[in-house]
């Protein structure tokens, strides 16, 4: 995919592609960002990510209304992401 002139200039100035803001992070920096994001989500929803993913999955299976007008595919993707982050965090003992 061809980048725009602006994207090329930003890549030159910042040293990373603005379309992929996390690819320049080290593994430790990325883990820290994921942990911070997971903690924020858990604080907002009042439960762990794994439990929230299960609650979303149960609501989806029961045909309950989807949050904020999201599509079924978006919710399924979100559930998968939450499960992946929760699994990764449990493996790393966070």
Description:
There is one protein chain. The protein has 94 residues and is an all-alpha fold. It contains four helices and no strands. The radius of gyration is 17 Å and the shape is extended.
SSE blueprint and pairings:
Layout: H1 5-14, H2 27-45, H3 49-61, H4 72-91
Highlighted features:
extended; single chain; 94 residues; mainly alpha
Total beta strand runs:
0
Task: Specify the helix fraction band.
Answer: 55-70%
Terminal Cα span: 37 Å
Percent range for β-strand residues: under 5%
Low-confidence stretches: none
The helix/strand order is: HHHH
What's the alpha carbon Rg, rounded to whole Å?
A: 17 Å
- The residue-averaged pLDDT reads 80
Globally, the shape reads extended
The helix count comes to 4
The biggest sheet amounts to: none
Structural class assignment: mainly alpha
Give a short synopsis of this structure.
The chain is mainly alpha-helical and 94 residues long. It has helices spanning 5-14, 27-45, 49-61, 72-91. The longest helix has 20 residues, at 72-91.
């Amino acid at each position: 995919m061809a980048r725009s002139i602006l994207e090329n200039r930003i890549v030159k100035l910042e040293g990373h592609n603005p379309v992929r803001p996390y690819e320049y992070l080290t593994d430790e920096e990325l883990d820290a960002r994921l942990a911070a994001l997971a903690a924020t989500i858990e604080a907002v929803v009042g439960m762990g990510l794994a439990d929230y993913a299960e609650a979303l999955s149960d609501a989806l299976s029961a045909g309950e209304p989807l949050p904020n007008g999201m599509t079924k595919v978006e919710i399924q993707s979100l559930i998968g992401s939450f499960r992946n982050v929760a699994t990764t965090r449990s493996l790393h003992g966070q």
